[in-house]
Specification:
mainly beta; Immunoglobulin-like; 5 domains; five-stranded antiparallel β-sheet; 5 helices; ZP-domain containing protein Ig-like domain-containing protein
Protein backbone atom coordinates (compact mmCIF):
# COMPACT_ATOMS: atom_id res chain seq x y z
CA UNK A 1 0.00 0.00 0.00
CA UNK A 2 1.31 3.43 -0.90
CA UNK A 3 0.85 5.95 1.87
CA UNK A 4 0.42 9.58 0.89
CA UNK A 5 2.07 12.34 2.88
CA UNK A 6 4.46 10.05 4.67
CA UNK A 7 6.87 12.95 4.99
CA UNK A 8 4.26 15.57 5.76
CA UNK A 9 4.24 17.16 2.31
CA UNK A 10 3.50 16.27 -1.24
CA UNK A 11 4.19 17.72 -4.64
CA UNK A 12 1.33 18.86 -6.76
CA UNK A 13 1.57 19.57 -10.44
CA UNK A 14 -0.83 22.01 -12.03
CA UNK A 15 -0.72 23.37 -15.52
CA UNK A 16 -2.75 25.23 -18.08
CA UNK A 17 -5.00 23.38 -20.47
CA UNK A 18 -2.48 24.00 -23.23
CA UNK A 19 -0.20 21.26 -21.85
CA UNK A 20 -0.32 18.26 -24.13
CA UNK A 21 -2.11 15.94 -21.74
CA UNK A 22 -2.66 13.38 -24.49
CA UNK A 23 1.03 12.46 -24.31
CA UNK A 24 0.47 10.72 -20.99
CA UNK A 25 -2.09 7.93 -20.61
CA UNK A 26 -5.21 8.31 -18.53
CA UNK A 27 -6.29 5.66 -16.01
CA UNK A 28 -9.51 4.95 -14.18
CA UNK A 29 -7.85 5.53 -10.81
CA UNK A 30 -7.99 9.32 -11.36
CA UNK A 31 -11.33 11.07 -11.46
CA UNK A 32 -11.90 14.84 -11.54
CA UNK A 33 -15.28 16.53 -11.05
CA UNK A 34 -16.59 20.08 -11.17
CA UNK A 35 -18.69 20.70 -8.05
CA UNK A 36 -19.77 24.33 -8.22
CA UNK A 37 -16.87 26.51 -7.12
CA UNK A 38 -14.78 23.46 -6.16
CA UNK A 39 -12.86 20.89 -8.21
CA UNK A 40 -12.69 17.45 -6.60
CA UNK A 41 -10.13 14.86 -7.64
CA UNK A 42 -10.40 11.27 -6.41
CA UNK A 43 -7.19 9.22 -6.43
CA UNK A 44 -6.77 5.50 -5.77
CA UNK A 45 -3.87 4.42 -3.52
CA UNK A 46 -1.50 3.68 -6.39
CA UNK A 47 0.67 6.76 -6.62
CA UNK A 48 3.89 7.65 -4.89
CA UNK A 49 4.27 11.26 -6.05
CA UNK A 50 2.02 14.04 -7.22
CA UNK A 51 3.93 16.57 -9.33
CA UNK A 52 2.80 19.61 -11.19
CA UNK A 53 4.17 21.99 -13.78
CA UNK A 54 3.04 25.57 -14.26
CA UNK A 55 3.36 27.08 -17.72
CA UNK A 56 5.22 23.96 -18.87
CA UNK A 57 8.33 25.01 -16.93
CA UNK A 58 7.89 25.36 -13.19
CA UNK A 59 7.38 22.56 -10.69
CA UNK A 60 5.50 23.65 -7.60
CA UNK A 61 6.05 21.83 -4.31
CA UNK A 62 2.71 22.19 -2.57
CA UNK A 63 3.45 21.93 1.13
CA UNK A 64 0.53 21.89 3.59
CA UNK A 65 1.15 25.57 4.29
CA UNK A 66 1.11 26.51 0.62
CA UNK A 67 -1.97 24.35 0.06
CA UNK A 68 -3.79 26.34 2.73
CA UNK A 69 -2.67 29.65 1.27
CA UNK A 70 -3.50 28.66 -2.30
CA UNK A 71 -6.92 27.07 -1.84
CA UNK A 72 -6.19 23.32 -1.77
CA UNK A 73 -7.13 20.64 0.73
CA UNK A 74 -6.84 16.88 0.78
CA UNK A 75 -7.95 13.90 2.81
CA UNK A 76 -7.26 10.17 2.95
CA UNK A 77 -9.46 7.30 3.99
CA UNK A 78 -8.12 4.36 6.05
CA UNK A 79 -7.46 2.36 2.88
CA UNK A 80 -5.21 5.05 1.37
CA UNK A 81 -7.64 6.50 -1.17
CA UNK A 82 -7.23 10.25 -1.50
CA UNK A 83 -9.48 13.17 -2.33
CA UNK A 84 -8.08 16.54 -3.37
CA UNK A 85 -10.26 19.64 -3.28
CA UNK A 86 -9.33 22.87 -5.05
CA UNK A 87 -11.10 26.19 -5.03
CA UNK A 88 -11.75 27.36 -8.58
CA UNK A 89 -9.88 30.52 -7.60
CA UNK A 90 -6.78 28.68 -6.39
CA UNK A 91 -3.33 30.09 -7.06
CA UNK A 92 -2.52 27.87 -10.03
CA UNK A 93 -5.67 27.40 -12.09
CA UNK A 94 -5.99 29.12 -15.44
CA UNK A 95 -8.76 31.71 -15.13
CA UNK A 96 -10.52 32.62 -18.37
CA UNK A 97 -12.55 35.81 -17.78
CA UNK A 98 -13.91 34.51 -14.45
CA UNK A 99 -16.06 32.07 -16.42
CA UNK A 100 -13.85 29.06 -17.12
CA UNK A 101 -11.20 27.58 -14.85
CA UNK A 102 -8.70 24.88 -15.83
CA UNK A 103 -6.53 22.76 -13.60
CA UNK A 104 -4.20 19.89 -14.50
CA UNK A 105 -2.56 17.55 -12.00
CA UNK A 106 0.10 14.97 -12.71
CA UNK A 107 0.69 11.77 -10.76
CA UNK A 108 3.73 9.53 -10.74
CA UNK A 109 3.66 5.80 -10.08
CA UNK A 110 6.35 4.35 -7.83
CA UNK A 111 9.43 3.23 -9.73
CA UNK A 112 13.00 2.19 -9.09
CA UNK A 113 14.23 5.79 -9.56
CA UNK A 114 16.75 4.44 -12.10
CA UNK A 115 14.43 4.92 -15.04
CA UNK A 116 11.69 7.40 -15.78
CA UNK A 117 8.65 6.55 -13.68
CA UNK A 118 5.23 6.20 -15.35
CA UNK A 119 3.39 9.53 -15.29
CA UNK A 120 -0.36 10.04 -15.46
CA UNK A 121 -2.01 13.39 -15.93
CA UNK A 122 -5.58 14.45 -15.33
CA UNK A 123 -7.05 17.82 -16.15
CA UNK A 124 -10.40 19.45 -15.61
CA UNK A 125 -11.98 22.58 -17.00
CA UNK A 126 -14.97 23.93 -15.09
CA UNK A 127 -17.50 26.56 -16.01
CA UNK A 128 -18.90 28.66 -13.18
CA UNK A 129 -21.40 31.42 -13.95
CA UNK A 130 -23.00 33.55 -12.81
CA UNK A 131 -21.17 34.55 -9.66
CA UNK A 132 -23.12 35.91 -6.71
CA UNK A 133 -22.22 39.23 -5.13
CA UNK A 134 -20.25 37.41 -2.47
CA UNK A 135 -18.97 33.82 -2.36
CA UNK A 136 -17.68 32.31 0.85
CA UNK A 137 -15.93 28.94 0.93
CA UNK A 138 -14.98 27.24 4.20
CA UNK A 139 -12.69 24.24 3.78
CA UNK A 140 -10.92 22.11 6.35
CA UNK A 141 -7.76 24.24 6.34
CA UNK A 142 -8.71 27.65 4.98
CA UNK A 143 -11.47 30.22 4.65
CA UNK A 144 -12.01 32.11 1.40
CA UNK A 145 -14.15 35.06 0.41
CA UNK A 146 -14.65 36.39 -3.11
CA UNK A 147 -16.57 39.62 -3.70
CA UNK A 148 -17.66 41.37 -6.84
CA UNK A 149 -15.79 44.59 -7.50
CA UNK A 150 -16.96 47.36 -9.78
CA UNK A 151 -13.79 49.44 -9.89
CA UNK A 152 -12.53 50.04 -13.43
CA UNK A 153 -9.02 49.12 -14.53
CA UNK A 154 -7.79 47.66 -11.24
CA UNK A 155 -4.36 46.16 -11.66
CA UNK A 156 -4.61 42.38 -11.48
CA UNK A 157 -2.26 40.78 -8.98
CA UNK A 158 -0.54 37.75 -10.50
CA UNK A 159 -1.55 34.84 -8.33
CA UNK A 160 0.56 32.22 -10.09
CA UNK A 161 4.25 31.56 -9.35
CA UNK A 162 6.80 33.69 -11.09
CA UNK A 163 10.42 33.04 -11.95
CA UNK A 164 12.72 31.86 -14.68
CA UNK A 165 12.11 28.86 -16.90
CA UNK A 166 14.32 26.64 -14.73
CA UNK A 167 12.83 27.69 -11.40
CA UNK A 168 11.92 24.79 -9.18
CA UNK A 169 9.37 26.94 -7.43
CA UNK A 170 8.36 30.53 -7.94
CA UNK A 171 7.44 33.40 -5.65
CA UNK A 172 3.74 33.89 -6.15
CA UNK A 173 3.67 36.50 -3.38
CA UNK A 174 4.59 39.36 -5.72
CA UNK A 175 2.53 42.51 -5.23
CA UNK A 176 0.80 44.57 -7.88
CA UNK A 177 2.77 46.86 -10.10
CA UNK A 178 1.58 50.32 -11.09
CA UNK A 179 -0.53 50.64 -14.20
CA UNK A 180 -0.74 53.87 -16.17
CA UNK A 181 -4.51 54.36 -15.98
CA UNK A 182 -5.68 51.78 -13.44
CA UNK A 183 -6.17 51.43 -9.73
CA UNK A 184 -3.49 49.73 -7.69
CA UNK A 185 -4.11 47.66 -4.57
CA UNK A 186 -2.14 49.35 -1.81
CA UNK A 187 -3.24 48.18 1.64
CA UNK A 188 -5.38 45.74 3.57
CA UNK A 189 -6.85 46.67 6.95
CA UNK A 190 -7.89 43.84 9.26
CA UNK A 191 -10.70 44.25 11.76
CA UNK A 192 -11.09 44.57 14.66
CA UNK A 193 -7.32 44.95 15.22
CA UNK A 194 -7.04 47.77 12.62
CA UNK A 195 -3.68 46.32 11.56
CA UNK A 196 -2.62 47.68 8.19
CA UNK A 197 -0.50 45.62 5.78
CA UNK A 198 0.63 46.12 2.23
CA UNK A 199 0.03 43.36 -0.29
CA UNK A 200 3.47 41.77 0.05
CA UNK A 201 3.19 41.67 3.83
CA UNK A 202 -0.27 40.13 3.64
CA UNK A 203 1.03 37.30 1.49
CA UNK A 204 4.22 36.79 3.50
CA UNK A 205 2.08 36.20 6.58
CA UNK A 206 0.30 33.29 4.92
CA UNK A 207 -2.80 35.02 3.62
CA UNK A 208 -3.67 35.12 -0.06
CA UNK A 209 -5.09 38.10 -1.89
CA UNK A 210 -5.79 38.48 -5.58
CA UNK A 211 -8.05 40.41 -7.88
CA UNK A 212 -9.32 38.97 -11.10
CA UNK A 213 -11.20 40.53 -13.97
CA UNK A 214 -14.33 41.08 -11.86
CA UNK A 215 -13.60 39.93 -8.33
CA UNK A 216 -11.44 40.39 -5.24
CA UNK A 217 -10.36 37.14 -3.55
CA UNK A 218 -8.98 36.74 -0.01
CA UNK A 219 -7.95 33.54 1.70
CA UNK A 220 -6.74 32.82 5.23
CA UNK A 221 -5.81 29.86 7.43
CA UNK A 222 -8.46 29.27 10.10
CA UNK A 223 -6.02 29.98 12.92
CA UNK A 224 -4.36 33.03 11.35
CA UNK A 225 -3.37 35.87 13.65
CA UNK A 226 -5.94 38.31 12.27
CA UNK A 227 -8.90 35.95 12.54
CA UNK A 228 -11.02 35.95 15.68
CA UNK A 229 -13.78 33.95 17.35
CA UNK A 230 -17.33 35.23 17.64
CA UNK A 231 -20.33 33.55 19.20
CA UNK A 232 -23.18 33.52 16.69
CA UNK A 233 -26.51 32.16 17.95
CA UNK A 234 -24.63 30.09 20.51
CA UNK A 235 -22.21 28.66 17.93
CA UNK A 236 -18.50 29.65 17.97
CA UNK A 237 -17.51 30.93 14.52
CA UNK A 238 -14.13 31.99 13.12
CA UNK A 239 -14.18 35.41 11.44
CA UNK A 240 -11.88 37.14 8.93
CA UNK A 241 -12.84 40.76 8.31
CA UNK A 242 -10.90 43.00 5.90
CA UNK A 243 -11.01 46.25 4.00
CA UNK A 244 -8.84 46.49 0.89
CA UNK A 245 -7.82 49.89 -0.44
CA UNK A 246 -7.17 50.77 -4.08
CA UNK A 247 -5.53 54.00 -5.26
CA UNK A 248 -5.38 55.88 -8.54
CA UNK A 249 -3.56 59.20 -8.33
CA UNK A 250 -5.93 61.38 -6.24
CA UNK A 251 -8.61 58.70 -5.78
CA UNK A 252 -8.86 56.05 -3.06
CA UNK A 253 -11.60 53.44 -2.83
CA UNK A 254 -12.30 50.55 -0.47
CA UNK A 255 -13.67 47.01 -0.90
CA UNK A 256 -14.83 45.16 2.23
CA UNK A 257 -14.68 41.37 2.44
CA UNK A 258 -15.60 39.12 5.36
CA UNK A 259 -15.52 35.35 5.74
CA UNK A 260 -17.10 33.46 8.65
CA UNK A 261 -16.65 29.72 9.17
CA UNK A 262 -17.84 27.22 11.80
CA UNK A 263 -15.47 25.67 14.33
CA UNK A 264 -15.42 22.08 15.66
CA UNK A 265 -17.38 23.28 18.70
CA UNK A 266 -20.44 23.55 16.43
CA UNK A 267 -20.88 19.77 16.67
CA UNK A 268 -22.51 17.64 19.39
CA UNK A 269 -22.09 13.87 19.67
CA UNK A 270 -23.98 10.94 21.08
CA UNK A 271 -22.95 7.30 20.50
CA UNK A 272 -25.58 7.12 17.77
CA UNK A 273 -25.89 10.57 16.17
CA UNK A 274 -23.74 13.51 15.03
CA UNK A 275 -25.51 16.88 15.26
CA UNK A 276 -24.06 19.95 13.53
CA UNK A 277 -25.49 23.38 14.32
CA UNK A 278 -25.09 26.19 11.77
CA UNK A 279 -26.48 29.66 12.54
CA UNK A 280 -29.15 30.68 10.07
CA UNK A 281 -28.36 34.39 10.45
CA UNK A 282 -24.55 34.65 10.47
CA UNK A 283 -24.35 38.09 12.06
CA UNK A 284 -20.93 39.29 10.77
CA UNK A 285 -22.10 38.70 7.19
CA UNK A 286 -25.33 40.72 7.39
CA UNK A 287 -25.93 44.45 7.35
CA UNK A 288 -29.51 44.01 8.59
CA UNK A 289 -31.94 41.35 9.78
CA UNK A 290 -33.96 41.51 6.58
CA UNK A 291 -32.91 38.61 4.38
CA UNK A 292 -34.42 35.70 2.51
CA UNK A 293 -32.92 32.21 2.53
CA UNK A 294 -33.27 31.02 -1.04
CA UNK A 295 -31.53 27.63 -1.01
CA UNK A 296 -30.30 25.06 1.50
CA UNK A 297 -28.43 22.02 0.21
CA UNK A 298 -26.58 19.25 1.98
CA UNK A 299 -23.85 17.11 0.49
CA UNK A 300 -20.91 14.85 1.26
CA UNK A 301 -17.33 15.50 0.14
CA UNK A 302 -18.36 18.70 -1.68
CA UNK A 303 -21.07 16.97 -3.74
CA UNK A 304 -24.75 17.76 -3.31
CA UNK A 305 -27.24 15.04 -2.39
CA UNK A 306 -30.87 14.99 -3.42
CA UNK A 307 -33.68 14.23 -0.98
CA UNK A 308 -33.87 10.56 -1.98
CA UNK A 309 -30.15 10.05 -1.36
CA UNK A 310 -30.39 11.80 2.00
CA UNK A 311 -33.34 9.66 3.04
CA UNK A 312 -31.55 6.47 2.00
CA UNK A 313 -28.61 7.42 4.24
CA UNK A 314 -30.83 8.63 7.11
CA UNK A 315 -29.39 12.15 6.96
CA UNK A 316 -31.62 15.02 8.01
CA UNK A 317 -31.51 18.82 7.67
CA UNK A 318 -33.83 20.92 9.83
CA UNK A 319 -34.17 24.69 9.33
CA UNK A 320 -35.36 26.46 12.48
CA UNK A 321 -35.74 30.13 13.33
CA UNK A 322 -32.14 30.34 14.59
CA UNK A 323 -30.23 27.37 13.16
CA UNK A 324 -29.77 24.94 10.33
CA UNK A 325 -29.35 21.58 12.04
CA UNK A 326 -27.74 18.60 10.31
CA UNK A 327 -28.04 15.12 11.84
CA UNK A 328 -25.99 12.16 10.63
CA UNK A 329 -26.12 8.66 12.16
CA UNK A 330 -22.74 7.42 13.37
CA UNK A 331 -21.63 4.85 10.82
CA UNK A 332 -23.80 6.19 7.99
CA UNK A 333 -22.84 5.76 4.35
CA UNK A 334 -20.47 8.50 3.23
CA UNK A 335 -18.10 8.30 6.19
CA UNK A 336 -15.61 5.75 7.40
CA UNK A 337 -14.35 4.26 10.63
CA UNK A 338 -10.70 4.45 11.67
CA UNK A 339 -8.99 2.18 14.20
CA UNK A 340 -6.87 3.50 17.07
CA UNK A 341 -4.92 2.00 19.96
CA UNK A 342 -4.64 3.58 23.40
CA UNK A 343 -2.84 1.59 26.12
CA UNK A 344 -3.25 -1.56 24.00
CA UNK A 345 -7.02 -1.01 23.96
CA UNK A 346 -8.93 -0.90 20.69
CA UNK A 347 -10.91 2.24 19.83
CA UNK A 348 -12.59 3.51 16.69
CA UNK A 349 -13.51 6.94 15.40
CA UNK A 350 -15.99 7.75 12.67
CA UNK A 351 -15.21 10.53 10.19
CA UNK A 352 -17.48 12.12 7.64
CA UNK A 353 -17.25 15.38 5.68
CA UNK A 354 -20.70 16.92 5.23
CA UNK A 355 -21.26 20.02 3.15
CA UNK A 356 -23.78 22.80 3.63
CA UNK A 357 -24.53 25.09 0.72
CA UNK A 358 -26.64 28.18 1.40
CA UNK A 359 -27.86 30.99 -0.80
CA UNK A 360 -29.51 34.10 0.60
CA UNK A 361 -30.30 37.65 -0.47
CA UNK A 362 -30.30 40.75 1.71
CA UNK A 363 -33.42 42.71 1.01
CA UNK A 364 -31.96 46.15 1.75
CA UNK A 365 -28.68 45.83 -0.15
CA UNK A 366 -30.17 43.56 -2.84
CA UNK A 367 -26.97 41.51 -2.77
CA UNK A 368 -26.88 37.74 -2.73
CA UNK A 369 -24.37 35.51 -0.96
CA UNK A 370 -23.33 31.96 -1.78
CA UNK A 371 -22.03 30.21 1.33
CA UNK A 372 -20.41 26.77 1.17
CA UNK A 373 -18.90 24.82 4.06
CA UNK A 374 -16.89 21.60 3.70
CA UNK A 375 -16.84 20.49 7.31
CA UNK A 376 -14.93 17.33 8.33
CA UNK A 377 -16.29 15.80 11.53
CA UNK A 378 -14.61 13.09 13.59
CA UNK A 379 -16.28 11.54 16.61
CA UNK A 380 -14.45 11.11 19.92
CA UNK A 381 -12.77 7.68 20.26
CA UNK A 382 -15.28 4.93 21.00
CA UNK A 383 -14.16 1.78 22.82
CA UNK A 384 -14.71 -1.40 20.82
CA UNK A 385 -13.10 -4.19 22.86
CA UNK A 386 -12.63 -7.27 20.67
CA UNK A 387 -14.30 -10.51 21.68
CA UNK A 388 -13.43 -14.11 21.01
CA UNK A 389 -16.56 -16.10 20.22
CA UNK A 390 -16.34 -19.83 20.79
CA UNK A 391 -18.39 -21.84 18.31
CA UNK A 392 -16.81 -25.18 19.25
CA UNK A 393 -19.25 -28.11 18.79
CA UNK A 394 -19.27 -30.45 21.80
CA UNK A 395 -21.36 -33.31 20.38
CA UNK A 396 -18.37 -35.21 19.08
CA UNK A 397 -15.49 -37.36 20.22
CA UNK A 398 -12.13 -35.76 21.14
CA UNK A 399 -10.38 -37.26 18.15
CA UNK A 400 -12.68 -35.33 15.80
CA UNK A 401 -13.29 -32.19 17.88
CA UNK A 402 -11.90 -28.75 16.94
CA UNK A 403 -11.97 -25.34 18.55
CA UNK A 404 -13.87 -22.96 16.26
CA UNK A 405 -13.01 -19.40 17.30
CA UNK A 406 -13.89 -16.00 15.86
CA UNK A 407 -12.13 -12.78 16.90
CA UNK A 408 -13.75 -9.43 16.18
CA UNK A 409 -15.16 -7.10 15.27
CA UNK A 410 -12.60 -4.82 13.55
CA UNK A 411 -12.46 -2.13 10.91
CA UNK A 412 -10.94 -3.00 7.56
CA UNK A 413 -7.66 -1.28 8.49
CA UNK A 414 -6.78 -4.06 10.98
CA UNK A 415 -4.74 -7.11 9.96
CA UNK A 416 -3.84 -10.27 11.86
CA UNK A 417 -0.07 -10.90 11.85
CA UNK A 418 0.54 -13.85 14.16
CA UNK A 419 -0.79 -15.92 17.06
CA UNK A 420 1.20 -16.73 20.18
CA UNK A 421 0.59 -20.09 21.88
CA UNK A 422 2.20 -21.22 25.17
CA UNK A 423 4.95 -23.05 23.32
CA UNK A 424 5.37 -21.15 20.04
CA UNK A 425 4.56 -18.12 17.90
CA UNK A 426 3.06 -18.82 14.48
CA UNK A 427 2.40 -16.46 11.60
CA UNK A 428 -0.92 -16.70 9.82
CA UNK A 429 0.72 -18.68 7.02
CA UNK A 430 2.28 -21.09 9.54
CA UNK A 431 -1.07 -21.51 11.28
CA UNK A 432 -2.71 -22.49 8.01
CA UNK A 433 0.13 -24.86 7.18
CA UNK A 434 -0.50 -26.53 10.55
CA UNK A 435 -4.17 -26.99 9.67
CA UNK A 436 -5.65 -24.18 11.77
CA UNK A 437 -7.57 -22.72 8.80
CA UNK A 438 -7.24 -19.03 9.70
CA UNK A 439 -9.61 -16.96 7.57
CA UNK A 440 -10.65 -13.31 7.34
CA UNK A 441 -14.40 -12.88 7.11
CA UNK A 442 -16.16 -9.63 6.15
CA UNK A 443 -19.59 -8.26 6.91
CA UNK A 444 -22.20 -8.20 4.11
CA UNK A 445 -21.67 -4.46 3.58
CA UNK A 446 -17.87 -4.91 3.47
CA UNK A 447 -17.21 -2.48 6.32
CA UNK A 448 -16.16 -4.82 9.16
CA UNK A 449 -14.09 -7.94 9.52
CA UNK A 450 -13.48 -10.85 11.89
CA UNK A 451 -10.78 -13.53 12.03
CA UNK A 452 -11.93 -17.16 12.21
CA UNK A 453 -9.71 -20.09 13.21
CA UNK A 454 -10.07 -23.84 13.76
CA UNK A 455 -7.67 -25.67 16.11
CA UNK A 456 -8.01 -29.46 16.53
CA UNK A 457 -8.23 -30.74 20.12
CA UNK A 458 -5.51 -33.19 19.19
CA UNK A 459 -2.91 -30.49 18.38
CA UNK A 460 -0.05 -30.15 20.92
CA UNK A 461 -0.88 -26.46 21.49
CA UNK A 462 -4.08 -27.61 23.22
CA UNK A 463 -3.70 -28.53 26.91
CA UNK A 464 -5.66 -31.65 27.94
CA UNK A 465 -6.69 -32.57 31.52
CA UNK A 466 -8.74 -35.65 32.45
CA UNK A 467 -10.92 -35.45 35.56
CA UNK A 468 -11.75 -39.05 36.28
CA UNK A 469 -13.85 -38.35 39.35
CA UNK A 470 -16.15 -36.18 37.23
CA UNK A 471 -15.99 -38.39 34.18
CA UNK A 472 -14.87 -35.52 31.92
CA UNK A 473 -11.81 -34.27 30.02
CA UNK A 474 -11.05 -30.53 29.77
CA UNK A 475 -9.34 -29.11 26.66
CA UNK A 476 -7.80 -25.61 27.06
CA UNK A 477 -6.38 -23.29 24.40
CA UNK A 478 -4.38 -20.21 25.41
CA UNK A 479 -3.51 -17.73 22.69
CA UNK A 480 -2.51 -14.12 22.03
CA UNK A 481 -3.56 -12.54 18.74
CA UNK A 482 -0.96 -10.17 17.28
CA UNK A 483 -2.63 -7.46 15.20
CA UNK A 484 -1.64 -4.24 13.44
CA UNK A 485 -3.44 -1.13 12.21
CA UNK A 486 -2.64 0.18 8.73
CA UNK A 487 -1.33 2.42 7.33
CA UNK A 488 0.49 3.58 10.47
CA UNK A 489 1.56 0.02 11.43
CA UNK A 490 0.34 0.43 15.02
CA UNK A 491 0.62 -2.97 16.76
CA UNK A 492 -1.69 -4.30 19.46
CA UNK A 493 -2.71 -7.67 20.87
CA UNK A 494 -5.67 -9.50 22.32
CA UNK A 495 -5.37 -12.43 24.73
CA UNK A 496 -7.89 -15.22 25.15
CA UNK A 497 -8.30 -18.51 27.00
CA UNK A 498 -10.97 -20.88 25.76
CA UNK A 499 -11.83 -24.34 26.97
CA UNK A 500 -14.17 -27.17 26.22
CA UNK A 501 -15.34 -30.02 28.44
CA UNK A 502 -16.12 -33.41 26.91
CA UNK A 503 -17.66 -36.31 28.78
CA UNK A 504 -15.55 -39.42 28.97
CA UNK A 505 -17.09 -42.37 27.17
CA UNK A 506 -18.26 -44.94 29.76
CA UNK A 507 -20.20 -47.98 28.42
CA UNK A 508 -23.64 -48.68 29.92
CA UNK A 509 -24.06 -51.38 32.61
CA UNK A 510 -26.99 -53.70 33.28
CA UNK A 511 -27.89 -55.17 36.66
CA UNK A 512 -30.91 -57.14 37.83
CA UNK A 513 -32.63 -58.79 40.79
CA UNK A 514 -35.91 -60.39 41.70
CA UNK A 515 -38.47 -60.18 44.46
CA UNK A 516 -41.44 -62.43 45.08
CA UNK A 517 -43.40 -61.15 42.08
CA UNK A 518 -41.19 -59.18 39.68
CA UNK A 519 -38.01 -58.99 37.75
CA UNK A 520 -36.10 -55.68 38.28
CA UNK A 521 -33.61 -54.79 35.51
CA UNK A 522 -31.64 -51.51 35.81
CA UNK A 523 -29.72 -50.00 32.87
CA UNK A 524 -27.15 -47.34 33.92
CA UNK A 525 -26.01 -45.39 30.85
CA UNK A 526 -23.66 -43.13 32.87
CA UNK A 527 -22.72 -39.92 31.07
CA UNK A 528 -23.88 -41.02 27.63
CA UNK A 529 -27.20 -40.26 26.05
CA UNK A 530 -29.37 -43.42 25.83
CA UNK A 531 -28.96 -43.81 22.09
CA UNK A 532 -29.97 -47.48 22.05
CA UNK A 533 -33.14 -49.61 21.85
CA UNK A 534 -34.44 -52.05 24.44
CA UNK A 535 -36.10 -55.38 23.75
CA UNK A 536 -38.13 -56.99 26.50
CA UNK A 537 -38.58 -60.56 25.53
CA UNK A 538 -39.30 -60.28 21.87
CA UNK A 539 -41.07 -56.94 22.05
CA UNK A 540 -39.56 -53.47 21.44
CA UNK A 541 -39.87 -51.23 24.45
CA UNK A 542 -42.14 -48.57 22.95
CA UNK A 543 -43.94 -45.68 24.63
CA UNK A 544 -47.05 -47.68 25.56
CA UNK A 545 -45.00 -50.58 26.88
CA UNK A 546 -42.74 -48.23 28.84
CA UNK A 547 -45.72 -46.68 30.64
CA UNK A 548 -46.47 -50.08 32.18
CA UNK A 549 -43.02 -51.20 33.20
CA UNK A 550 -40.44 -48.34 33.00
CA UNK A 551 -39.14 -46.04 35.75
CA UNK A 552 -36.58 -43.36 34.71
CA UNK A 553 -33.76 -41.79 36.73
CA UNK A 554 -31.20 -39.11 35.83
CA UNK A 555 -28.69 -41.48 34.28
CA UNK A 556 -30.54 -44.79 34.37
CA UNK A 557 -33.87 -46.49 33.97
CA UNK A 558 -35.41 -49.58 35.58
CA UNK A 559 -37.77 -52.08 34.01
CA UNK A 560 -40.05 -53.88 36.46
CA UNK A 561 -41.57 -56.94 34.80
CA UNK A 562 -44.05 -59.23 36.64
CA UNK A 563 -43.36 -62.93 36.58
CA UNK A 564 -46.77 -63.34 34.99
CA UNK A 565 -46.01 -61.08 32.05
CA UNK A 566 -46.23 -62.77 28.65
CA UNK A 567 -42.79 -61.29 28.00
CA UNK A 568 -41.29 -63.36 30.77
CA UNK A 569 -40.05 -66.84 29.91
CA UNK A 570 -39.71 -69.55 32.55
CA UNK A 571 -37.13 -72.23 32.07
CA UNK A 572 -36.56 -75.30 34.18
CA UNK A 573 -32.99 -75.70 35.26
CA UNK A 574 -32.02 -78.89 37.04
CA UNK A 575 -29.17 -79.03 39.41
CA UNK A 576 -26.75 -81.89 38.85
CA UNK A 577 -27.33 -82.90 42.46
CA UNK A 578 -30.64 -83.13 44.35
CA UNK A 579 -31.26 -83.14 48.02
Amino acid sequence: MIIFLSSGLFCLLMAAVGIQAQQTPSINDLNAECLGNVIRLSVAPLFEEVDTVFNDTQIINLTPGLATQCGFSFKFDPMGNAMFFASLQNCFSQNMDDKMFSLVMQFRLPGNHMTEDPVYRVGKTCSYTPWTSREILCDRNYMEVSVRRTLPDIQTIPKQPTGGPKARSGNFRRGAEAVASGYKMTAVVFSPSKNVMNVDEVQRKGYAIANTLTRLVLRSPHNAEETYLQNVAGVPMRVLSTSTFFEQKWLVTRVDATAVCPTPEAVAFTPEVITWYMPKHIDPLFSSDAFTMLEVYMGIDAKRLDTEEMAARNYSVLVTEAHIIVEIPVGAVGGNFKSHIQDDQYFVTYTIEPMLELLWIEEVAHENTSYKVLFPITTPPMARPPQVRNYTPLDTVPEQAVFVLELGTFNLDVELLNITFPTMVLTVAECNARGFNVQEQRSPDNTLKTFRMEVPFSDPVVFKERRAEQGVTTFTLQLIYGLVIFPEYAPFSHSAVVDAVLLDIVPPSVTGNCDQENFHITVDYRNQEPFFVVLVGKRLLNHEFAQQYLTEGDTDFTITLPFSSPDAVFEVRRSPKTC
